[in-house]
Every structure is written in structure tokens, then in C-alpha cells.
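testing teh design pipeline on a random one, pls ignore if ur not involved
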């Protein structure tokens, strides 16, 4: 379908809506909801497409406000018919992962729970803990999110003692391994002293631990130990024995009392209030609790069963088939339980059952999971209450009509005018929303090395940020239906004093936005808050919750600006050295730096090593080598 500016929401054209609904067949498949700009709002699946899509447009006073908002924006409906319900579920999971529609975002990535990442995209994979789940490289695998951070870190430390894994993202030395190799903690990956194939085999054993397949791993290592002993390779057999003992010690005290210890099962439950739903998923393998995963969802996004279903769908769509258990215990009946069971059975290659236990030990397990979800909900509520208190206090300090749900902070960073940049950070409901962070390179020609102008730099950034709202565009955006994605801030904070604030106010006045944008500044020295047109700061206490919120915002804006400035300065310094070599363009410079990682390594390389870089021939390699190793001119011999 091509975008059309003439499209209007379907609810405003009942005849077109009814005609479109009649075109949808009563078969299993996937449907797309698009807005007037042809953007995908929502992707869903159903075993009867027509009935499901029609249900969105019926009058329902109890409808979720989020869904009601979406329906107001739907201008077009598309669908894909599949043969089975399981195929529809698999297709929906892939499409959601590809398009990331706004109204499909159920799980909140609030960085509360960490993941464990294995970078299978690299020849020698790394393993590390991260709070950012980035699926930019399809081969990389993320396990989690894990609730017990301490247990995760302890497990990873133990694994790094058991297996000689790669310890550093980049080599410490160019031509020799570091101390980790000498003490047996690494196989010399940096110098390729172990083949990539052999190293990846070892990493696959590590992955089995986080897949909950420790029993299977023990059996594999036992067979290898017995084979090594038969071949009289006793040193290797002893190392395998130590690995087996260490693996057995993992989760040894986390026995779960169930009648059948041979069945792998997951148990999921939630606790919710009006705003948040905290979900816990316990992974039980061979009667042991091997993982406890946590998710946070919008409680208004659906019924408890629908939330659990979406969590299970998103979780199992990202794991490998061997990680899917044979039994899943749920706290509530799932809306499409049979469809999910069929989908998981197809992926696993064996039957997967989904049950809601009512009695005996399985019900006790669900009750334990629910109790843990309750603790997480209480913790989330305390955190939310603290943020609400801070926003309420800030609204009182600044005399705002409503709570400042979206606050933006700006800062400038440079060294005497060189590499001047600015940062824009965003807090939503008192929490950093890093997906909305932006950085700017200052384009003002008067700001250069040796001449800085923070006032002009800040004015430039604010002008660029609010340029799209100049001339009354804010009113047009507010009158439209897509109000949930409006990025207009409730409050703007400038890092600086009265000078920076005055420069920003002047720009907003020129853009006719001074009445629309609530702006303040926070001075560094005394933590003073200044308002436009006021010569003295507001009377506040440094420990007030609202002031602390502004300080957190200011510190985050400063951190983000400084990090970007350092990156720009480092790039410029690296480029400046290579720019002096005749015939070496920007593309070849990037290839050299990607290959050697630093100018120091490039300086130590021989012409033959330099010539190994793609696009660098022997002649250019010699020219680069000569640049870093200039020959001193020879003097004519003095005549006798």
C-alpha cells in the first residue's frame, strides 16, 4: 500500500469501515493497523481474522484506553492469511520484531533487570552482562532478563574460573597475550593461539548453562572425561572433572519440590496494580530452579491472561528451540492457549503442554512465583511513588498546572570552543528515556577552537530542537489524534545560569513559542533555579525531591554531552594524523583504524602487515610505514 494524505481514520467513514471489514476472511492470519501516514500502529494475530478485527470497532465502554486511542487512528487495515494458527503466531512474532509498532510495545525496557549476552556474531564470542538488549546483530544471543543480579554475577565469575574464556573486548598488547593467558584464564584469543572453531565449541558448553541444560552438559563432560582417561590424558581429564564439580555446585541449594524431577518446566505469574504489572518466570530444570526472569508491563494493556500470553510469546520467540520446556505452568488461563502450545511444540519438535494448576505441588509453585511477583510490584510501587513525589514537588516549585511527565535537559560541552557539541536528554515520569536522547554538533561558525560561546551554542540547539513547532505546528499536532507520540516537553531545563537562560528565551520569543515552552535553568555552583525574567533564583532547598530530580537530569545531560564531546575529539585527533598522509582518503582511514584499532598499533606494523588491510596496496603500505618511520637525511662526507 502507498501512503495517501487523503486517508482519514476509518471510524469517521463508517461505510468504508464496513466495506473493509467484509473483505477480511474468517481464516487464521495476521492483521496490520495503519494510520493516516501509513505507519504501522499494531500487528495482531487471530484464528478468525474477521471476528477479531471487527471487535476493535464495536462500542465497548470498558475498553482499554490504550486500545481506544489506537482505534481512533486506524486509517487502513491489511491482513495476511496463514494455513494454521501456529503459523500466524510465528509470523506475528517476526513482524513485530521487524517493525516494532508503537501499540505492540507491552514489555517496558526500564533497565531494571540485566541480560547476559554471548556475541556469536564474532569469530571468538564474548560473554558479558548488559542492561541493553540490542538485537542489531541477529547471531548474538541474549539470556534473561535476570531478577537476581547478584546470583547472575556470581555465576558468571564461577564460569570464568571453570572455562578459560576471552576476557577483554580488545587486545591489551599487539604482539603477545596478557597475564590471563599465563595463569590459564584465557586461551590466548587476542593472538589467535586457539582456533575459532575450538573456542566456539567451548562457548557452546557455557551457553548450555544459561539455557538451563546443566544436566545435559554434565553428561557431555562426563563422557569427555572418561574418553580422556582411557587415552591416558589425565591432565585434561582432571580439568574436566573439576568443571563437572563446579557445574554441580551451581544452583545446588535451589531444589524445588516437585513430584517429577525429570520434566523441564517454566512457571509464570504476575501481580498488578492500576499502572504496573510485574511478571516473574521461574525456570525449573531437573527439579532445580536454574533461572528467575522478570518483566514489567503496562497493567492497562490487557487482562492478566493476555499479558501473560504476550510475555510468553515475546520470550519464547527469542530463545533457541532447546530452551523451550516441555511444560509451562501459568497463573491464569491464556486467551489463545492452544495456539501458543501448538506454536511452541512445532518449534521444539516435541509436545509442549500449557496448564493452569489448581492443586498439589504445581499450584504451590505458581503461588511461590506469584509471591515473588508481589515483592517486585511493591518495589516498583515504591520507586514510582518516589518519582511522583519528585514531579509533584517540582510542579509546586515552578507553579506548573500539571505534573511534568516529559522533562528535557540540555548542556554544552567543548574545550575552549573546539569540538563543541550539545546534549538533549529526556526524563519521562522521572526516569531516563534513553531512546529519546539526542546529541548535536554545534554548527555556528563563530564557535571554533580558541573562541567559545555557550550562549550562542545553546540558542542554536534550542532553535534546531523546536524548529518543527515554529509557526503554529504545535497546535496542529495537538489537534491530531496521535497525541500519545507527541514529543513536546512539559518542561525544559538548561544547564547554566541567567546568561544561558536569556539566550534560550530570546530564541523562543522569536519562534513565538515562549508561552508554550516552560523553561528554567539550573546553575551549577549553588544549585539555583532561575525562571525567565527573574533576576534572583527561586527559594528552594537542595534536598527537595523536585530539586533533586532537576539535578539528576542536569547530571545526565552533562554526562551525555561530555561523552559525545570526547568521542568527537578522539575521532578528530585520530583523523588528523592520517590526514597528513598523501593519497589516504577517509574510507581507507576507517579501514586502517578498524583493522589496527589505534594509531599506536598502526605505527608498530610492518609494511607487509599494513598491506593486509583491504584497499591498501604495497605502495600505499610503504608510504604509510615511511610516514611513521621517517629516514634521517644522510650528510655528505666531509672532505679531508
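output:
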Amino acid at each position: 500500500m502507498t501512503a495517501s494524505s487523503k486517508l482519514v481514520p476509518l471510524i469517521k467513514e463508517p461505510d468504508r469501515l464496513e466495506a473493509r471489514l467484509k473483505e477480511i476472511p474468517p481464516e487464521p492470519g495476521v492483521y496490520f493497523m495503519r494510520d493516516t501516514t501509513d505507519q504501522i500502529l499494531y500487528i495482531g494475530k487471530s484464528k478468525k481474522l474477521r471476528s477479531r478485527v471487527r471487535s476493535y470497532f464495536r462500542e465497548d465502554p470498558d475498553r482499554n484506553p490504550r486500545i481506544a486511542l489506537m482505534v481512533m487512528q486506524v486509517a487502513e487495515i491489511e491482513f495476511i492469511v496463514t494455513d494454521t494458527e501456529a503459523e500466524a503466531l510465528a509470523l506475528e512474532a517476526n513482524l513485530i520484531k521487524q517493525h516494532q509498532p508503537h501499540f505492540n510495545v507491552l514489555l517496558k525496557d526500564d533497565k531494571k533487570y540485566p541480560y547476559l549476552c554471548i556475541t556469536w556474531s564474532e569469530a571468538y564470542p564474548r560473554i558479558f552482562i548488559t542492561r541493553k538488549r540490542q538485537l542489531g546483530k541477529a547471531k548474538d544471543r541474549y539470556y534473561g532478563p535476570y531478577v537476581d543480579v547478584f546470583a547472575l554475577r556470581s555465576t558468571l565469575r564461577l564460569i570464568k574460573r571453570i572455562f578459560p574464556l576471552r576476557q577483554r573486548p580488545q587486545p591489551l598488547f599487539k604482539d603477545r597475550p596478557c597475564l590471563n593467558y599465563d595463569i590459564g584464564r584465557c586461551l590466548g584469543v587476542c593472538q589467535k593461539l586457539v582456533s575459532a572453531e575450538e573456542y566456539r565449541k567451548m562457548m557452546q558448553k557455557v551457553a548450555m548453562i544459561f539455557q538451563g541444560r546443566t544436566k545435559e552438559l554434565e553428561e557431555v563432560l562426563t563422557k569427555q572425561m572418561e574418553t580422556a582417561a582411557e587415552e591416558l590424558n589425565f591432565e585434561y581429564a582432571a580439568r574436566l572433572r573439576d568443571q563437572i564439580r563446579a557445574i554441580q555446585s551451581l544452583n545446588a541449594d535451589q531444589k524445588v519440590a516437585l513430584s517429577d524431577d525429570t520434566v523441564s518446566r517454566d512457571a509464570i505469574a504476575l501481580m498488578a496494580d492500576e499502572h504496573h504489572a510485574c511478571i516473574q518466570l521461574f525456570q525449573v530444570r531437573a527439579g532445580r530452579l536454574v533461572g528467575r526472569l522478570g518483566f514489567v508491563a503496562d497493567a492497562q494493556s490487557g487482562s492478566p491472561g493476555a499479558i501473560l500470553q504476550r510475555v510468553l510469546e515475546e520470550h519464547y520467540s527469542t530463545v533457541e528451540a532447546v530452551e523451550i520446556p516441555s511444560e509451562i505452568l501459568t497463573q491464569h488461563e491464556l486467551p489463545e492457549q492452544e495456539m501458543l502450545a501448538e506454536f511452541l511444540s512445532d518449534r521444539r519438535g516435541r509436545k509442549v503442554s500449557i496448564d493452569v494448576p489448581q492443586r498439589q505441588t504445581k499450584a504451590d509453585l505458581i503461588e511461590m512465583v506469584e509471591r515473588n511477583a508481589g515483592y517486585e510490584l511493591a518495589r516498583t510501587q515504591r520507586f514510582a511513588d518516589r518519582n511522583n513525589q519528585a514531579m509533584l514537588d517540582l510542579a509546586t516549585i515552578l507553579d506548573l498546572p500539571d505534573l511534568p511527565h516529559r522533562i528535557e535537559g540540555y548542556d554544552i560541552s567543548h574545550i575552549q570552543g573546539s569540538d563543541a557539541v550539545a546534549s538533549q536528554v529526556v526524563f519521562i515520569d522521572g526516569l531516563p528515556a534513553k531512546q529519546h536522547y539526542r546529541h548535536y554538533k554545534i554548527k555556528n561558525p563563530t564557535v571554533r577552537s580558541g573562541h567559545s560561546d555557550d550562549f550562542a551554542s545553546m540558542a542554536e540547539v534550542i532553535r534546531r530542537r523546536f524548529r518543527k513547532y515554529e509557526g503554529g505546528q504545535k497546535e496542529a499536532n495537538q489537534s491530531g489524534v496521535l497525541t500519545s507520540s507527541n514529543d513536546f516537553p512539559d518542561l525544559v531545563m538548561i544547564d547554566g545560569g541567567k546568561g544561558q537562560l536569556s539566550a534560550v528565551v530570546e530564541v523562543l520569543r522569536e519562534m513565538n513559542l515562549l508561552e508554550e515552552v516552560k523553561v528554567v535553568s539550573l546553575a551549577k555552583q549553588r544549585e539555583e533555579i532561575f525562571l525567565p525574567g527573574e533576576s534572583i533564583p527561586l527559594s528552594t532547598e537542595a534536598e527537595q525531591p523536585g530539586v533533586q530530580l532537576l539535578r539528576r537530569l542536569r547530571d545526565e545531560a552533562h554526562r551525555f554531552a561530555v561523552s559525545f564531546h570526547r568521542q568527537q575529539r578522539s575521532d578528530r585527533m585520530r583523523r588528523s594524523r592520517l590526514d597528513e598522509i598523501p593519497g589516504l582518503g577517509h574510507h581507507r582511514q576507517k579501514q586502517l583504524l578498524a583493522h589496527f584499532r589505534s594509531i599506536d598499533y598502526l605505527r608498530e606494523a610492518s609494511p607487509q602487515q599494513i598491506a593486509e588491510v583491504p584497499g591498501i596496496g604495497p605502495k600505499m603500505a610503504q608510504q604509510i610505514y615511511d610516514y611513521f618511520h621517517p629516514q634521517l637525511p644522510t650528510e655528505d662526507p666531509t672532505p679531508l
